[in-house]
Structure formats: structure tokens, C-alpha cells
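Proteins fold. Shown next:

***
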Amino acid sequence: MAEAIYVGGLLVATPRLDDPNFRRSVVLILEHDRTGGTLGVVLNRPSDVSVLQVLPVWDDLVTGPAVLFQGGPVQTDSALALAAVPSGGEPLGWRRLHAATPAVSRLGTVDLDAPPEILAGEIAQMRIFAGYAGWNSGQLEEEIREGAWYVVEADPADTFYDDPGSLWRAVLRRQPGELAFVATCPDDPSQN
């Protein structure tokens, strides 16, 4: 399964993963290099901090909820934005993810130092993440072997899911076979 790590794929925390940074998280892989490591953002951790408080010039362009998302435990004082474009174009201030998967073919990162006006009519959806998730070379593969993560295909709606708190269950529920049953796992397994 470790070979399945790819840009645009999802890492879904297994019920066994109890690290508070990643418990029941869904991580979109943004970069993966066997020798350099892996970088992604947690899609289902909205914070209580509004975009208006931190990056007010981008508030009108973000897709609700209009809050910063906790992208991961690395560099939490920096921001990373993802946006989807409605067409195949590549607007200024936006860089396409290097992924061949149809689910993320219109997804890219936004240069938050660029003037928002240049992207205002060019993007369809956008979210801003404080921090990111990162793994050194071989570290993620080892975590997958240990049973901490499922690697599954992304759906185009995952990055901007309406109810981020239910994304973990929704992603698992749509998986084939027995993996779909994991979605019914209670938060506290002793309650089963």
C-alpha cells in the first residue's frame, strides 16, 4: 500500500491513529518525493480563527466556513491556500498541483502575497490552511505499514467539503468493501 502515495491522494487516519494532530483526519497529499518526503494539509480541521482576522484581503474569496483550517503541526505560523479553478486555465498567483488524478486536476496553491484582485474572477473555491503536515523520506511509508493510514482516492468535493467535521466518515463510507464499515467505528472503541 505504501506505493500508493501520490500527489492528489488522500491519507485517512485509521481508528488506531491516536496522535491528536491527526486523529480522524483526512490529509490531501500536495507533494511526494520518495527521497525528499511528503507534504499535505489536513482538510477537516477548521479553527475558530476567521480569515477576516488574519488575512482580511482574502476573506471574500474563501469558501465557507470562512475560517483558517489547521493544515497540520508543521509551521503553524504560516499560511497555505488551495484554490480550484473552474476551467483549465492557470491564472496568475495560482500554481497547479503536479497530479494526474482527475479529482484534483483543477486544484492548486495560491500565492497569498499576490493581490487578491488578480484571482477574484479566476477561482471557484478557496481555503486557507495554517501549517501543514510533513513526513521525512520513508516516514509516511512506515506509518502506513504500521496501520496508521489508509491511502484512498480523493473526490473533487473533498477539499472544500461543506461539513468538514463529517469528512472522515464520508470518505470512508464511499470506499469499496470492508473499508466502508470503518466509518461506523465509534470515537471511543470501548463504547462498541
Remarks:
- The first strand starts at residue 10 and ends at 13.
- Helices lie at 51-54, 139-145, 167-173.
- The radius of gyration is 16 Å.
